[in-house]
From TrEMBL:
It comes from the Eukaryota. Keywords: Oxidoreductase. The keyword Oxidoreductase applies. Coiled coil: none annotated. This is Enoyl reductase (ER) domain-containing protein. Pfam families: ADH_N (PF08240), ADH_zinc_N_2 (PF13602). InterPro entries: ADH-like_N, ER, GroES-like_sf, NAD(P)-bd_dom_sf, SV-ATPase_mito-regulator. One of its GO terms (molecular function) is oxidoreductase activity. It comes from Bemisia tabaci. SUPFAM superfamilies: GroES-like, NAD(P)-binding Rossmann-fold domains.
Length: 344
């Protein structure tokens, strides 16, 4: 590798907030020195996430230009003096919720990297952090799904929903309900959903048939989360993992809208208390900072499940680095089934 690559890195950058015209491929200067706990990675693949849209629309504000990207897979070139358990030559999958990973070369803290077992492909590894880690922790650690229970998975054709369906199937006799567009029903049933439902009629149908469910995984948020809470059984648990309902068009989030989101009204407290129900939120990136060992243990469990053939990621499509707009647009239009990737 030549000195030019050590100095700059081809990166996908956000130059402003708003439309896709604000996304550009640029050469970005790398930090001159590797931190004590950092590793230098040459990336090959990248996971596309709804968080890219949140950032594009200004929900999260970063100094501009800002390199996008929460997930990447690559090979370690160099490690800092304090790095243990990772060495040059290792394949790693990386996750960083503040972005910066849509770049050919990155310096990243070792806590954000996971060494990929030899039996797992780069493509499968690229699907794991945002999707399977989120699904694993929300189902197993927070909602604590059990055998013979029922779970409602919103957006079950998306990355997290696809993963949550497969993980829920690991429990015996679990009933899996999932919301999706009707055009995706066949695929989600093949993945393990027992009862696919549309976003418009799921609440009515569940109320009239199953009545209530034990667990809800909701990446849609907004009014949908309030509706879903009423479908919980006593001692049931709903987990909010995202808020895709915020993305409805090209509009940029205003400062007042961001403030309203952070100070939104508390859910129906009376309904929660009288119904003996519980709700919680989940943010993978912040939990990775707060409890890195839990994240690492969970990822090791996911690696084993994948190696044993008990889960199987679905790649919707792989796009070139310069086709990033088309790739992110798939998520905005809710056209993907499974994970969308970029390659360089």
């Amino acid at each position: 590798m030549n000195e030019h690559h050590l100095e700059t890195s081809k990166s996908i950058c956000l130059t402003g907030y708003g439309g896709f015209d604000k996304i550009q491929v640029q050469n970005v200067m790398l930090p001159p020195a590797l931190g004590t706990n950092e590793v230098k990675v040459q990336n090959k693949l990248f996971g596309v996430n709804f968080a890219d849209l949140y950032t594009l629309k200004g929900l999260f504000e970063f100094p501009l230009p800002h390199t996008l990207g929460l997930e990447s897979v690559g090979r370690v070139l160099e490690v800092g003096a304090g790095v243990k358990d990772v060495k040059a030559g290792d394949r790693v999958v990386c996750y960083k919720w503040t972005g910066g990973l849509y770049s050919e070369f990155i310096n990243i803290d070792m806590k954000n990297c996971f060494v990929i077992p030899p039996s797992i492909s780069d493509e499968d590894a690229a699907t794991l952090p945002a999707n399977y880690l989120t699904a694993y922790i929300t189902l197993f650690k927070i909602a604590k799904l059990q055998a013979d229970q029922s779970v409602l998975i919103h957006s079950c054709a998306g990355g997290v929903g696809w993963a949550a369906t497969q993980l829920a199937k690991l429990f015996s006799n679990v009933t899996i309900l999932g919301t999706a567009s009707e055009s995706k029903f066949k695929m989600v049933v093949e993945n393990g959903v027992n009862r696919p439902l549309t976003y418009e009629n799921y609440a009515t149908i569940i109320s009239q048939s199953e009545g209530e469910v034990d667990c809800i995984i909701d990446s849609i948020g907004g009014s949908n989360f309030s509706i879903s809470q009423k479908l919980l059984k006593p001692l049931g648990h709903a987990v909010l993992t995202g808020c895709s309902s915020l993305i409805t068009g090209p509009e940029i989030f205003t400062s007042s809208e961001r403030e309203a989101l952070s100070s939104s009204t508390v859910p129906d407290m009376q309904g929660l208390v009288m119904g003996s129900r519980s709700i919680s939120g989940f943010h993978l990136g912040l939990l990775m900072d707060q409890n890195p060992q839990l994240i690492r243990n969970s990822m090791e469990s996911i690696f084993k499940l994948l190696g044993d053939g008990k889960i199987k990621p679905r790649i919707d499509s792989i796009w070139s680095f310069h086709e990033v707009v088309q790739a992110i647009s798939l998520l905005e239009k809710r056209k993907n089934i499974g994970k969308v990737l970029l390659k360089i």
